[in-house]
Amino acid sequence: MTDLEIKKNVSKKAVDYGIPTNYSFLYDDLSDDFKKEFESQINRTEFGIPIMKYGHQNGNWLIVGTKKLAIKNERLNLIGIEHIKGFEVPKSELEKAKRNQPDKMIRKFEYEVLTINNHNRNSIDVWLNKKVDYYGFWHIMIRLLNLKK
Fold this sequence. Notes:
- The protein is built from five helices and eight strands; from the N terminus they run αβααβββββαββα.
- The protein is α+β, with helices and mostly antiparallel strands.
- A five-stranded antiparallel sheet has the order 1-2-3-4-5, with helices on one face. The chain has a three-stranded antiparallel sheet with strand order 6-7-8, covered by helices on one side.
């Protein structure tokens, strides 16, 4: 698939999963100032086409591209899609959910932190808003990884 086909496919799924929200947006809908600032920090050829942005109330954000993820925590981290091995809920996040949501079944818990595992044994935590953004991002990434195979 071409990058444009991947963008179209993933964008449609993102809308199906509830984008936009208060903190998640299709990249094309972001302000020109934000896009200009972001694109000055990346190599567009290596990153691919930016598809969507997920933010968090703490100021962290990430942008899903057709070839890489850009994760802004303390600094900007770029991860190639092909280097992503999987995702998991950190134990600390699971324990916090059990304490704060004792009446919910585990599969209905609301989380804010997701760990992205890389093939090079590094991992990085990303902050996402609960419910729609969290599970939407996870499913979008599974979709993107399958399209890149």
